[in-house]
Design goal:
It is built from four helices and six strands. It has 155 residues and is of the alpha/beta class. The chain is globular and about 35 Å long.
């Protein structure tokens, strides 16, 4: 099964409510392209990718769809965050989401203080705690986008 890049409207159920959304037979990077270029009615302030199950450090960034989605946002000229959760049981996704949301609020309050074009948030879980024990923000170096993406929205 390959990613053909197709995207279409879908109803999403969350917390007992129905929400309009989209489903893409696409890579995470293609999903960011669709969202930023085709679906958003204005340029997004920030792209947040994840929460990833694993560290996304070192060589892992080469294979990570979460990092690829954040990189694509950066290639489109946007500040981005890739969120990862590292730990034994990896059960604290809700906590990682709260930490990421707080980081987004801080970035929005002081946009000039964004540390890097791409920041990766790593929250390390602790079995006996409802909060991550360690939160690290790392950065990535970038040059520029080589060619712009081309899209065809299919029904």
């Amino acid at each position: 099964n390959t990613n053909d890049g197709r995207i279409g409207p879908r109803q999403v159920q969350y917390n007992g409510q129905q929400w309009p959304g989209y489903a893409a037979n696409a890579s995470p990077a293609q999903a960011v392209q669709h969202g930023v270029i085709e679906l958003a009615d204005r340029t997004p302030n920030l792209v947040v990718s994840g929460i990833n199950h694993g560290a996304n450090l070192g060589d892992d960034v080469i294979y990570s769809g979460t990092v690829a989605a954040a990189l694509e946002g950066r290639f489109l000229g946007l500040p981005t965050i890739a969120v990862s959760l590292v730990g034994h049981d990896l059960v604290y996704f809700d906590t990682a989401a709260r930490v990421a949301a707080e980081l987004v609020r801080k970035i929005e309050r002081s946009r000039s203080e964004l540390m890097a074009p791409l920041a990766t948030l790593h929250a390390t879980d602790e079995r006996s705690s409802s909060r991550p024990r360690v939160i690290k923000i790392t950065s990535f170096f970038f040059s520029s986008m080589s060619i712009p993406p081309v899209f065809c929205l299919q029904p």
